[in-house]
Model the fold of this input.
Amino acid sequence: MVSDYIRPTTLRLGIIDDECPRFGFHNFRHGLSTFLIWEGYDPRVVQRMLRQSNLEMPMHYMHMDEERIGAQGRFLEKRVPAEARVQ
Done:
């Protein structure tokens, strides 16, 4: 599924380039953890949701870099119709 659908789609959309060695389901864990913690969810809840063995893991996955968060937001704004966005 990753090699047939996910990677080709992310390449086509410009999310990653050919130089990116891997991209797959694991990246979604990073994104989900970052989003949930950024939105204020308790890291212990995120830990349980992602079925991680210790509390350090969701904190490891978390990417609080403002530039990355902004880039993700701009990417979604381009692809999600205005009427479908949550305000």
